[in-house]
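Exercise: predict the fold of this chain.
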Amino acid sequence: MKKFLDTLDSFNLNEYIKAIRFDELKVPSLPFQIPVSKSYYGVDEMKNGELDFLKATALSKSKHSVFMCSDMQMDDMVADMDFSKKYMFGLAAILKKGLHINMIHNLNRPFHELMLGLECWIPLYMTGQISPYYLKGTYNQIFCHFLYVSGAAALSGECISGFHTKGKYYLTKNKEELSYYQERSACILKKAHSLMDIYREDKASELSAFLLANSHTGGNRRNILSTLPIYTATTEFLTEFLDKRNVSANGKQKILEYAAMRREQTLEILKNNPISDEIPYPDENDFRKHPLSLSLSLMFCDTNYEYTFEEYTEHLELTKEFAKENKNYSAVQTRENAFTNIQITTHENEYVMISKNKAPTIHFVVRHPILREAIENLEFPVFELSK
């Protein structure tokens, strides 16, 4: 889990896009010709079946969302680097076209394999065009299934567990069959549970509503922060901070209103529930090399406002004052900055929210018990913040 979070912490979508030249990707407009239906037997043919489905979907005129679900063995396919590159290119073409993907992950696998798989999907999650789901229970003891559906084609597959090489795929563009598979995928989605809710700037209002509703629910909170929490800063401190950076009147007002809202929500939680913040406090030399910034990720601010060391120290003192005034609030200092670009909010037994501060700002709310508990149980060296 720590390796997964470190990958997320260091991941930069803009650099990734440049590296794979996604921004230069051209989706061909010529139709892709395949028979109305086709069968694929064995692993090598099934690879071709997946690529044919991606091509048919990317090159069609349909804007229908894409459904992907499989509990079939995949390691023998992933080991083929040529296939993997073509597969990722096909997915990139679908996303470049603007299609949304409903992806049902198979979580019935060893934890390290699960995290490795999610790590590979991080770049796609960052686009905001992926909705990840999972199905409860164990469902591939004997029979394994595969289903990809789009507005252009459906690819259905099956095999016996442990005998992937004997598997079969069936690709169809027939309207009646396609309608059947679209209904089937819709039925599966009704049984699926959200693996994580993903919030980008276009869902800012939904995130705001979620945070407001959550402030009225009970439970312990623990936050692993990459900078100081904005709700411990006073209006006077923030006003002076923003004035020194010549922030426009409109921009300053938005930030002050956001800070007031976050403070109000935090105080509402603290009435009956504890909050523990783990905050970084680097020494002056480290800070000047790697300055920290005002925490504005939840308002999707695209400007980075860095503290001076003196301002950070002043805000730290305000955090101590906030702890004195609120008996349910505590802050501890991390001996080193656990993360530089993500913050983790945990609501015990409810959810974990991983907030990426930049490149781009995005928030993942994880509810799946195995993933949530793994993050909740992360431990870092800390010491009590002196009051």
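Check your answer against the key: The longest strand covers residues 163-172.
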